[in-house]
Amino acid sequence: MTNRREFIAQIGLGGSALLAGNVMAADLPMVADADPQGKALGYVADAAKADKVKFPKFAAGQNCTSCALFQGKAGAASGPCPLFAGKQVAAKGWCSAYAKKA
Ligand code: SF4
Fold first, then answer.
1. Which residues sit with their C-beta closer than 6 Å to ligand 1?
2. Is residue 49 predicted with pLDDT exceeding 70?
3. Is 60 helix (H, G, I), strand (E, B) or coil?
4. Percent share of the chain, pLDDT over 70
5. How many whole angstroms from 89 Cα to the centroid of ligand 1?
């Protein structure tokens, strides 16, 4: 439940990014390994490196590309995510707020 609460809070914080869409996505910096928000959410640029002990809900095959929050174009190597306003996440990345696309 904590994760769910955090997720909802993050959506609120990232709302402006949602409104901005993915205009100029290519100009946005990638989320860095040391990014505090990334660390809080367990973000990794390579889903294979997700902390499976800390985040047991991680399942093989999950990554940003198949996440409902990923705003990159199909086939793009990276794209915006509302949880990381002003930055891009890797298409092959993952974080604990992962939500499978419908
Ligand atoms: S898994 Fe989803 S919520 Fe997490 S960084 Fe990737 S696109 Fe964003």
1. 43, 64, 67, 69-70, 81, 83, 89, 93-95, 97-98
2. yes
3. coil
4. 75
5. 7
- Distances 83 to 44, 53, 54 between C-alpha atoms, Å: 14, 22, 19
**Residue 94 main-chain phi, psi, to 5 deg:** -160, 150
Determine, yes or no, domain membership for 69: yes
Contact 25, 83 (CB under 8 A): no
**pLDDT > 60? residue 7:** no
| Domain-embedded: residue 100 | no
Range of the domain at 52: 2-90
pLDDT of the residue at 27: 86
Residue 98 placed within a domain: no
User: Rounded distance, CA 68 to CA 81, Å?
Assistant: 9
pTM of the model: 0.77
